[in-house]
Amino acid sequence: MSSRRLAGAVALVTGASSGIGAAAARRLAGAGARVFLSGRDPDRLAAVAAQSGGTAIPCDLTDPDLTTELAGRVLDVAGRVDILVNNAGQGFAGPLTEMTDAQIQALVAANLTAPMLLARAVLPGMLARGSGRLGFVGSIAGRLGVREEAVYAGTKAGLSVFADSLRKETTGRGIVVTELVPAVVDTPFFARRGRPYPRRRPRPVPAERAADALLTGMLAGRHEVCLPRWMVLPIAVRATLPATYRRLSDRFG
Ligand SMILES: NC(=O)c1ccc[n+]([C@@H]2O[C@H](COP(=O)([O-])OP(=O)(O)OC[C@H]3O[C@@H](n4cnc5c(N)ncnc54)[C@H](OP(=O)(O)O)[C@@H]3O)[C@@H](O)[C@H]2O)c1
């Protein structure tokens, strides 16, 4: 990671208490950025902040007021945000009919509404300066759909189209919008949602690799980074050959 371009940059990373977000916060700090870390668990967040020399701001992103407050606090303290890593997210595995109202609302709020609110909060400053980088951690679930993950997949599909639309809205104004589209990353994500990863392939990749892929993509001005790269194939098949995709999907899930 280029420390020349990141030295002194102000970064806000959500979901920094674990997994991909923690790895991203460490990488950014290692490259000289001033990092603000957000997450729910205050102890784990403080531990990652201590490792990275960053500032921990615990926040539950299912609450839109707290989410707006989080952005306000970082802007008050640092005066600007140069890099926003919208990474926090939660999953749910199981039939839609078994989800409670609260579970559906929490997934939509944390995975979709919060990244929108945070992007809206930091964007005016980025536009005024003519530079800024917005990273979004999507999911292959948002591109292909996954059985018994309808709400999760829906939030990630929404996030993907939101990022794409925001890119169009800000094009030519110095703003880079990058979406990471991971398949499977080796983090506590699956244990937390209550169902382990059920397949052999794609194989889980380390959280550090996912964080590097996102941050490198953001610095390089890439729109989208699939991890592993070959996941572009099923995405392309679904877009160009929907009937074939449906047959394959019915067979292989
Ligand atoms: N792991 C995978 O295979 C995979 C694949 C595709 C996409 N993703 C996406 O990658 C992102 C990072 O997940 P991960 O794999 O690193 O999982 P993780 O280790 O479980 O980390 C998730 C992070 O999001 C935070 N978070 C969750 N709900 C939150 C809420 N309501 N308010 C504030 N923070 C919240 C967690 O905070 P606390 O721990 O403090 O609660 C944690 O820091 C997520 O958006 C996920 O959907 C993961």
Automatic annotation (TrEMBL):
Protein name per the record: Oxidoreductase
Similarity comment text for this entry: Belongs to the short-chain dehydrogenases/reductases (SDR) family.
Keyword Oxidoreductase: yes
Classification lineage: Bacteria, Bacillati, Actinomycetota, Actinomycetes, Micromonosporales
Keywords: Oxidoreductase
Family matches, as Gene3D superfamilies: NAD(P)-binding Rossmann-like Domain
Pfam families linked to this entry: adh_short
Family annotation (CDD domains): SDR_c
InterPro entries, per database record: NAD(P)-bd_dom_sf, Sc_DH/Rdtase_CS, SDR_fam
UniProt source species: Plantactinospora endophytica
PROSITE patterns: ADH_SHORT
PANTHER family assigned: DEHYDROGENASE/REDUCTASE SDR FAMILY MEMBER 7B (PTHR44196), DEHYDROGENASE_REDUCTASE SDR FAMILY MEMBER 7B (PTHR44196:SF1)
